């Protein structure tokens, strides 16, 4: 990627050798240096999912879940295809402190997560709220994405 000095806004770049996705910062550093710097990494190319033509990173979903206090950190993304159209389902466990039998409150929680995911990802995801301990636990790296898409 060739960058000229006239391009001063942050632009997404991919470091091809190692697969990191980041942006360049053109502002002067606090230490006084003026050369462009890399922003924090926003993801990796191999973690990226393409759903209905939109790039989705599981870290984006994780960030949204972390914003909502009624959800725990345990989630799973399931992808499948129906009539050649990708569908994304996000299953999330409720936080034990926020369990309720009130269906209206549960509906509000689900809509809140649904709306926030749509704002961040720019696609609609089916949301399922689960009881704590429902999703499988893994030793080591957890399997958060299940891709069942098959196109014939």
Notable characteristics:
single chain, 152 residues, alpha+beta, GMP Synthetase, Chain A, domain 3, 2 domains, four-stranded antiparallel beta sheet, four-stranded mixed beta sheet, 2 helices, 33% strand
Describe this structure in words.
The protein is an alpha+beta fold and 152 residues long. It folds into two domains: 12-46, no CATH class; 48-147, GMP Synthetase, Chain A, domain 3, CATH 3.30.300.30. It has two helices and ten strands. The chain has helices at residues 58-67, 103-121; strands at 12-15, 20-25, 37-38, 43-44, 49-51, 54-56, 71-82, 85-94, 126-130, 145-147. Strands 1, 2, 3 and 4 form a four-stranded antiparallel beta sheet that branches. A four-stranded mixed beta sheet has the order 9-8-7-10. A hairpin with a 2-residue loop joins strand 5 and strand 6 (54-56). Helix 1 packs across helix 2. The longest helix has 19 residues, at 103-121. The chain starts with 11 loop residues before the first strand and ends in a 5-residue tail after the last strand.
């Amino acid at each position: 990627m060739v960058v000229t000095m006239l391009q001063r806004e942050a632009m997404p770049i991919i470091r091809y050798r190692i697969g990191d996705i980041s942006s360049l910062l053109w502002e002067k550093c606090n230490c006084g240096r003026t050369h462009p710097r890399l922003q924090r990494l926003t993801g990796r190319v191999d973690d990226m999912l393409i759903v209905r033509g939109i790039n989705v990173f599981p870290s984006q979903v994780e960030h949204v879940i972390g914003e909502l206090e009624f959800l725990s950190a345990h989630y799973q993304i399931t992808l499948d295809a129906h009539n050649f159209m990708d569908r994304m389902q996000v299953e999330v466990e409720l936080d034990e402190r926020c369990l309720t039998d009130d269906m209206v409150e549960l509906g509000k929680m689900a809509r809140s997560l649904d709306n926030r995911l749509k704002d961040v990802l720019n696609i609609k995801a089916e949301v399922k709220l689960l009881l704590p301990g429902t999703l499988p636990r893994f030793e080591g790296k957890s399997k958060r994405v299940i891709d069942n898409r098959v196109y014939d």
